[in-house]
Fold this sequence. Notes:
The complex is a heterotrimer.
Chain A: H1 7-12, E1 30-37, E2 44-52, H2 55-67, E3 74-79, H3 110-121
Antiparallel strand pairs in A: 1-2, 1-3
Chain B: H1 15-22, H2 25-36, H3 49-74, H4 83-108, H5 114-122, H6 139-160, H7 166-194, H8 198-217, H9 230-234, H10 242-258, E1 270-271, E2 278-279, H11 285-295, H12 299-319
Antiparallel strand pairs in B: 1-2
Helix pairs in contact in B: 3-4, 4-7, 6-7, 6-8, 6-10
Chain C: H1 3-26, H2 35-63, H3 68-74, H4 84-87, H5 93-114, H6 120-148, H7 152-170, H8 179-184, H9 191-209, H10 230-239
Amino acid sequence: xxxxLDPRVNRLRLNNSDGSFSIEEGENWxxxxxxxxxxxxxxxxxxxxxxxxxxxLALIFAKEQFGRRKKCVxxxxxxxxxxxxxxxxxxxxxxxxxxxxxxxxSGFKVMDKINKFKAxxx
Amino acid sequence: MxxxxxxxxxxxxxxxQEEQLQDDPVKLAAFEARIAxxxxxxxxxxxxxxxxxxxxxxxxxxxxxxxxxxLPEGTxxxxxxxxxxxxxxxxKVQDEIGHGQxxxxxxxxxxxxxxxxxxxLLSGKxxxxxxxxxxxxxxxxxxxxxxxxxxxxxxxxxxxxxxxxGPYCRALERIxxxxxxxxxxxxxxxxxxxxxxxxxxxMLQDALNRWWQPIMHFFGPPDKVSAHSEKLMQWKxxxxxNDDMRNQFLDAYVPKIWxxxxxxxxxxxxxxxxxxxxxxxxxxWDLFFEVIKxxxxxxKERLDVRKWAEEHGRWIRKALMRQEERERTALPVx
Amino acid sequence: xxxxxxxxxxxxxxxxxxxxxxxxxxEWTGLGPVMEEDIAFSSMAQDKIGHAWALYRILQEHFNxxxxxxxxxxxxxxxxxxxQLAEMPITSYDFSLMRHFLxxxxxxxxxxxxxxxxxxxxxxxxxxxxxxxxxxxxHADAWILQLCAAGAExxxxxxxxxxxxxxxxxxxxxxxxxxxxxxAEKIYPGEAALYQQWLNNISPVIEKAGLTLPQMTAPVYGxxxxxxxxxxxxxxxxxxxxxxxDPEATW
Lengths: 122, 334, 251
């Protein structure tokens, strides 16, 4: 008999173990990354992950852990192990993007040319 | 919910001499510059070994505090009065488990498995917030926890959310959003008792008297005796000092208690209008350390209940461990 | 209109089922087998209690019933009309999962029948909670199928749980005294029809799981007449412990 103030706990019949109980590596299954879609037409966005034995239960778990508040219309799950990403220190590969103005609308000064032409034509 | 100041520092400070010397000084400088610029550190980034270790410890203790913190309030799930309180309390305790889930995931990105963290909790190797080693004796205790302990936790968590580790910050962003519901429902239930019948008011005052010392302990020992390192502040692992957080809490919440005609069991408690700081009687720090060591009123019960849950869920977890996928379970990547 | 008497009987037994099983399932909150499942099971417990609340409000609004809190927290066991399945202690997770599977399919069949109901509030409630029930049965089916495909120990436990729950689950469909009126007025199709539909829905899952469905030889009736095990009064004493300190106070 426990001497807890919690009637729930008193029903558990705790065995007063000595602390030797431990869980095995892998007992919390695999990890799945979760992607949340807030409304139709929007992108699915990464919101976190769940531990689950398979994708099916991962989706069922994700529904409550990541879809119980706020708007949500759909979720994706994918095994974390299946995600391929660049190393974060490789971000220098992207470093010159802002310099390559020929890929950007702002790199083309159409109005300047028109104004120049109009000024010359007067 | 979590208070940062009582982090049980058993690691000493020898690391500063040993491990930091092993870290590549060029990488370390780049790492520290990144943090100084206000950039976040992400799981795959290079980081000093000690940064990784301190973060695992911090996030893990926070996670443990959530799932152990679910227990004192869980006590009252079956007894909450009326539909609204009953549903709000179940939802709140559920959120605590949800927070634990988010935080264990954040800690896992640093390389320690959830299983290993749970084992360290069960064996007593890893600590959780001291405040949960006290019993919730009456319904009024639930309202005090829901209002004031959650308020204290928010002070701490809002500070930590500005820290340097990306996954922890992202978890805290979601947690802080949900904590605002906890605080509001706690405050609402607290006010209901404070403005209710004489018996309700007496019940609340009694709970407040019992919880005041654990609440004062919540942010940990005063800065002058607390062993936290400059380095952890520089690395944005620890974001605010114990005294600052305690003062911030007192400033925001003592007036909310007093305005309801309730009293606090500390005759010295007052705000010094010159310094802007709160003054109070020194809480019993010997008791605080006794409870951390495992000698609080509920330490044993909390861990025994957690063990019960792990033991009784084991057949399910083991049944669904897929043999073919067991060679390597991947950790969260983000 | 005779259904004025018969309808409250239906609403009360449904609401009492939902409240009591929701209360039981909420006992797992914080103690579940793994955090993700803890969260999912807790949400469903909240949903059940929410359904009970909605039904008590229909009673209050349309049948001059008492305040839902008073009605739920002040009655004694003999006044409760829940099935005995709902009041059983949570025991172990296999029992709780199997009860969830059997009960939630029964609940789904019942609410699906209300989509045709001539009593608008029930029709509206059924439309509102349709998605919740879909998730509840999806969750239950997934667990039953997974655990039954996960080795002899696990499957054996689920078969044992089914054997323990099945006659109790039959008690959900105990007929009410004025049921004929409700059928005649097209409020719902009656317990016998729901029972058949329930069997049709659970059988494929049971079969796919490789479980053996026991014969319904002795459904545990009585709950709908206020006959209960000792567990219900204990549950009610606990549930009302704070509320009954001062039933006039607001909490």
